[in-house]
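Render this sequence as a predicted structure.
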Amino acid sequence: MKLDPRTKLFLTIAGNSIILSAPVIYGAMIVVLPAVLLVLEKRWRFSLLFSFLYAISAFSFDYLKTMDVGLAGTLFVSTMMLVSHVMPISVIFYYVMTTTKVNEFMAGMSKMHIPNKVTIPLAVMIRFFPTVFDEARDIGNAMRMRGIRLFSLRTLKNPLAILEYRLIPLLVSLTKIGDELSVAATTRGLSPETRRSCIVKIGFRVQDVAVFVYCIAVVVLFCSRSVT
């Protein structure tokens, strides 16, 4: 189910606002939406794992937050609260970044009359993070081919080896990725002063209206309950 980039932007803003400020029940109502969208993108394993972890963390936090559980229990409840709030936001960003093409995003921002000074950094960020994830996965595969694993006996004896085997190659790759993205932006003529044309066609469809209506309904329900 392909969504307009403006719909994804609205989902990000509305979802983050509800998850960070509303009780668990309203957060769960928002979390259902990215879970369903990921299933429709044929990423049902990731969606099921995310839904399972969120259900455990949200239930544990909501059940234990009013109980006297001691120091260890307080640390556990704090961890569950952090997971139940940060993980849904991360999943929404993951869905938006992995399903949005740069040209579609640029076209959506152009229709909203957003300045290029704001649009270009966001577009580079959308392209940057998926590339970083792919690079980290490739580094992990290269390490496993050499018999080096993250939680192996070798790395447990020498924790600094993780810096040598994982972080340093990743940092070097990030530098190269940043340079390549800068060159690509220059090649495509992206600049704050240039008005960019785009041949991709975007527009609101039935699924976009459904996402808008659902998010607005959750926000209105939360606001009405807060007032009363």
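Summary. The two ends are 37 Å apart (CA to CA). The first helix runs from residue 5 to 21.
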